[in-house]
Design a protein that fits this description.
Blueprint (H helix, E strand, L loop, with lengths): L3 H10 L4 H17 L2 E3 L2 E3 L2 H17 L6 E5 L5 E5 H26 L18
Antiparallel strand pairs: 1-2, 3-4
Helix pairs in contact: 2-4, 3-4
Length: 128
């Protein structure tokens, strides 16, 4: 017997066309991938496939800078934080890990009946 919440979701989503469901689902997927990353109690922007941080790491590599080298980095809230190359690498790793989880969840949704819009729920706990 479905819960009341499930019935509401299905009733709400049946008013959307398949194309609308797919469009909204792709937007939700992309938003989940591009959401700011929490690292060391501050949020870093990681839009466009983490382009800014990846570019900075590539420049550091070209210049032969050590992982301990740090530079000022503009955070999601427009404040500044001294950030090392090692920390930037960790942020990219967190981004890639989340992106893989989002895409895996999207693939699972995509293999289903697609009657409701895809929504990524980020879990902060270990697998239950």
């Amino acid at each position: 017997f479905p819960s009341h919440d499930t019935i509401e979701e299905i009733q709400e989503d049946t008013t959307l066309t398949e194309n609308q469901i797919l469009t909204l689902s792709k937007q939700n997927r992309d938003s989940a991938v591009d959401a700011d990353i929490l690292f060391d109690n501050v949020y870093f922007q990681v839009t466009d496939d983490c382009a800014d941080i990846k570019s900075s790491l590539q420049e550091a590599s070209v210049l032969g800078l050590e992982d301990s080298y740090s530079q000022l980095w503009r955070l999601a809230d427009n404040t500044w934080r001294q950030t090392t190359i090692a920390e930037a690498k960790q942020i990219v790793a967190l981004f890639v890990e989340r992106k893989q989880k989002v895409w895996a969840a999207f693939a699972e949704w995509d293999s289903g009946d697609k009657v409701s819009v895809f929504v990524y729920e980020e879990t902060t706990t270990t697998e239950s």
